[in-house]
Amino acid sequence: MLLSAAVRACRRVHALAAFPRTRGWTDGTGTPPPRLSSTVAAPHYRRMEYQDAVCTLNTLQTNASALDQVRRERGHPEIQLQAMRGFLERAGLTVEELDHLNIIHVTGTKGKGSTCAFTEQILRNYGFRTGFYSSPHLVQVRERIRINGRPIEKELFTKYFWQVYNRLDETKESHGGTMPAYFRFLTILAFHVFLQEKVDVAVLEVGIGGAYDCTNIIRRPWVCGISSLGIDHTSILGDTIEKIAWQKGGIFKPGVPAFTVKQQDGPMTVLQQRAEEIGCSLYVCPELGQYQNPGVEPVKLGLAGLHQRSNASLALQLTHCWLQRRCSTAEAAVESTAGFGGFGTAPVFEPSPRMLKGLAETDWLGRNQTLTHGSITYFLDGAHTMRSMQACVRWFSEAAAQHETNATGSLVRVLLFNATGERDCAAMLKLLVPCHFDFAVFCPNITEAIATCNADQQNFNVSVENMLTRCLDNQQSWRVLNGHEEKPEAEFLIGDGLPLVAEQRSVTLVFPCILSALRWITQGKDPVLSDPSKHLIPVKASVDAKAALLRGASDIHVLITGSLHLVGGALKHLEPSLAS
């Protein structure tokens, strides 16, 4: 029964592959339109194989009872934690057990994942066995659950997955047939893994919000942190930054110290009020430069971008506080300038060598990441809010300028963009216009045309048609922003289906998958993308002609942004080892 459900999950992708037939699209090749999908249907795996576990996990994206839960709870978010406790107990865990994980709990709109990455790396440098739960994943779902900085092995993921899934499945009939939704299940799985693997500390990144996020089932974290706040997930968290701050402050716990970076006055006041209501101390982190003694070299960070400095400061405070509770050695805990209580400025201290080493060695893929493959330089950043896109533009402008100083010939800039959910794509694209891209390419978060099964990156919550329609809308927004307000007559390349590429009078293109977009952008100059086993759909000569500038360029700079899922799909092709 479990196996058939898993196989049906992988096969369901065929329904997405068949694009609806629409009039007015002419055939550019004379051949029937190909089917497109993020993956091929999975073969019959033995029950205990990794892909079988992931396919079964994916059924929780579309499980009717799970979706019904989400709809019911949307108007009554407080019952989300009640439901989470019930699922936790059915999985054989108790909230009391989670107290033993010595948790660092972090939320925020921008930078919470980077803060967690800095924090985990520092504590690992002290020799502690670390657990790290984050979301979303880029390439494989097991990236969300890390032990000592590494995604858990496929064998461990499979083993623990079935332990938790079977307990829930065996008890569902006595609980109205309910199973936890995707993220809720993964959170329970992470708790189970960390307890079984006996970690010294668990670093938890909140999924969405804080107050009603399923990670907030914990009772007694050791310390809490809030990174930079902004507008995101407004349908869930509220339409003002003050409402969002109220949700984020929901992770505060009585008597548990909390730290935040500098915020705007409105949300800072809300956070202070939340801390007072809940009964915890709240401290604002100093600037990173304040930690340095005169004559000492500036703190070096493993993550690029000026915005990472506030994340690093928050990580220093979180680890400093955690270490003070864990141990009292001179290296681990320098005396602070102020005790906990009320609201104030966090203590300034001299970071230990292990802290500095941790900040310098932190690696967090898909965030301000640069990859160079010969003459192609990829700039990858999963920015998906206005504030994070502003930070992305600053980082890209500086990083690309540095690379351009070494360019010896003609250089071409390309934007590869997609965004999901309720984001204001036009507003984000407007921020990117000053970067002066020669090409703007749009594609959905579909990794490639039908090929090998890649259950890790399947998403059943949105149709392929909707994804491609949004890409076409983004293309038109880009044209308007660049002064091409008239709607051109589009010539489509695939008859009786959604287009492979819509030809326009400006250099903007829409591709049906990430691999097609990357192959066209790089024009054979990146050998990593030249796997002959990957199925590619031929394009018309007129589209190839548009790539003349790319073929003649000495260097190509590609900014990939707008969605962490887009970045993850790109990394699957650009760094094949991540998918192995």
Calculate Rg over CA atoms: 24 Å
Low-pLDDT windows of residues: 1-46, 329-340, 486-505
Main sheet? 9 strands, mixed
| CA(first)-CA(last) distance | 28 Å
Binned, the helix content reads: 40-55%
Structural class: alpha/beta
Please tell me what the overall shape is.
Answer: globular
* Percentage beta strand: 5-15%
Let me know the average pLDDT. Answer: 84
Strand order of the largest sheet: 4-3-2-5-1-6-7-8-9
Number of helices: 21
Number of strands: 17
Model description:
By secondary structure, the protein is α/β, with parallel strands linked by helices. It is 40% helix and 12% strand. The protein is built from 21 helices and 17 strands. The chain has helices at residues 2-11, 13-17, 50-62, 64-74, 78-90, 95-98, 112-125, 154-171, 182-196, 234-237, 241-248, 265-278, 308-326, 353-361, 386-404, 425-432, 464-481, 514-522, 541-545, 548-552, 564-574, and strands at 104-107, 130-133, 145-147, 150-151, 201-205, 223-226, 258-260, 282-284, 343-345, 369-373, 376-381, 411-417, 439-442, 491-492, 502-503, 508-510, 555-561. Strand 3 and strand 4 (150-151) form a beta hairpin. The radius of gyration is 24 Å and the shape is globular. Residues 1-46, 329-340 and 486-505 have low confidence and may be disordered.
Write the layout of secondary structure elements.
Blueprint: H1 2-11, H2 13-17, H3 50-62, H4 64-74, H5 78-90, H6 95-98, E1 104-107, H7 112-125, E2 130-133, E3 145-147, E4 150-151, H8 154-171, H9 182-196, E5 201-205, E6 223-226, H10 234-237, H11 241-248, E7 258-260, H12 265-278, E8 282-284, H13 308-326, E9 343-345, H14 353-361, E10 369-373, E11 376-381, H15 386-404, E12 411-417, H16 425-432, E13 439-442, H17 464-481, E14 491-492, E15 502-503, E16 508-510, H18 514-522, H19 541-545, H20 548-552, E17 555-561, H21 564-574
Parallel strand pairs: 1-5, 1-6, 2-5, 6-7, 7-8, 8-9, 11-17, 12-13, 12-17, 13-16
Antiparallel strand pairs: 2-3, 3-4, 10-11, 14-15
Helix pairs in contact: 1-3, 7-13, 7-14, 8-9, 11-12, 15-16, 16-17
